Amino acid sequence: MSSLLIIALVFGLALALIAIRLPIGLVLTVCAFIGVAVEASPKAALGLLSRLPFETATNWEFSAAPMFLFMGFVAARAGLTTGLFDASRLLLRRVPGALAVASVMASALFAAASGSSVATSAAMSRIAVPEMLKRGYDQGLACGTIAASGTLGSLIPPSLTLILFGIMADVSIGQLFLAGLLPGILSAVIYMTMIALRVTVKPALAGTPISRSEIEAVRWREVMWDILPLPILIALVMGSISAGWATPTESGALGAAGALVLALLRRRLDFQLLRAALRETASAFATLFFILVGGALLVRFVALTGVSRDLVEFFEMIGGGPYLLLFFVAVVYIVLGMFIDPIGLLLLTIPVFLPIAQSMDMDLVWFGILLVKLLEIGLITPPVGLNIYVIKSTLGNLVDLPTIFRGIFWFIAMDLLTLIILIAWPQITLWLPSMMR
User: Tens digits of per-residue pLDDT, 164-177?
Assistant: First the structure.
């Protein structure tokens, strides 16, 4: 059996198992183990499987993940994120479509605390969508705003997706965090601008504006107290990394400590909160560890088959440069992203595409941010955009699925525009990392 046929069968099996919703860590491990056993020998597969968990556990970069997970769980359980939407809508009250624009801003800040797109979408759909619908906002606009804004958790640091890419591609996680900051802000600004322009052209989309009496009743000191914790955490994490004072793991520890101190100052810290946050962190970290072991085994399998070398030779033969590769990757990610979980898609494709990018001397930090942006698009692309179904499950019968699909169209278009900008002007991505090098 040829190596090409083996890898096609293994990847086909992986896609089928992912489609029936088996855990991605299990899928990667089982499929890669079978592939190595067929390509080399069962003994070699067992040897890799026994060694890789130890190698993953002793990877210093991986220790950043539990720190940021714990920070996010503490922030959420201590209520450090609950005032984001209210504060944002009042600060942006004069902008057309203020509630939707505020939802983007609040989601971006929430994403910076949680590092998870799904968690951001789930939390903000409970808070912001009912408020927008009560004000008469178009259902598609309200749901589309939250579904798209939730994807910012993949790009705005600290991001678990960036941590996974950094470990798999052996790229500095600190540089990836810095590289994701401006593209994440750019995505949010483009969303906000699009919403404001649409509401300006068609005011009926935004329903009833915030009244003067509501604004006058606001106690601005309380509003600023509600929104202050997350900017402090973001500044603590990103400031320590960009200044070179801390590694990503150390900055994660600072962020976790900062979240505990802020929870204590707000009198929300108790033993029950700590126990729950630690339990959630341990569960999420175990899942992440299993995924990384499976991904590392898949990398070894792909290396054994030599398919990456064949693809490099193919691109050299047709004279394909970096932009042709990016076009090919974009097509694969957008099509497969309609059906496959983003993390699963990332770990399935890194072993194939990364050697080609390296052979073309592409900056892997820039390449990683582009991949994550493509994964963001997959999170909201029908028919299986994960964030769409998170919102549907949260809202129940309040909004039907076709309405959410309709509302997401403009945001997908804005994501594609952002992607084109990041490809045309790499310095948007690479400016902050260049200061660290």
Answer: 899 888 898 989 99
**Which residues are CB-neighbours of 291 under 8 A, at least 6 positions away?**
24, 25, 28, 164, 343, 347
Candidates 295, 339, 429, 346; CA nearest to 162 is 346
Q: Which residue has the higher pLDDT, 381 or 187?
A: 187
CB 92 within 8 A of CB 109: no
Band of residue 108 on the pLDDT scale cut at 50, 70, 90: confident
Q: d(Cα 179, Cα 194) in Å, to the nearest integer?
A: 24
Residue 2 has pLDDT above 90, yes or no: no
Closest CA to 322 of 385, 282, 364, 290: 364
pLDDT beyond 90 at 332: no
Q: What b/e sequence results for 35-53 when a residue is b if at least 16 CB atoms lie within 10 Å of its CB, and e otherwise?
A: bbbbbeeeeebeebbeebe
What is the residue-wise DSSP string for 312-369?
HHHHHHHT--HHHHHHHHHHHHHHHTTTS-HHHHHHHHHHHHHHHHHHTT--HHHHHH
- The pTM of this model reads 0.85
**Distances in whole angstroms, Cα of residue 250 to Cα of each of 331, 377, 433:** 37, 31, 18
Average pLDDT of the residues of the chain: 84
Residue 365: the pLDDT is 95
What is the C-alpha separation between 376 and 382, in angstroms, rounded? 13
| pLDDT exceeds 60 at position 1 | no
Contacts of 341-344 spanning 24+ positions with Cβ under 8 A: 341/18, 341/24, 341/386, 342/117, 342/154, 342/161, 342/375, 342/376, 342/378, 342/379, 342/386, 343/24, 343/161, 343/164, 343/291, 344/14, 344/18, 344/24, 344/27, 344/28
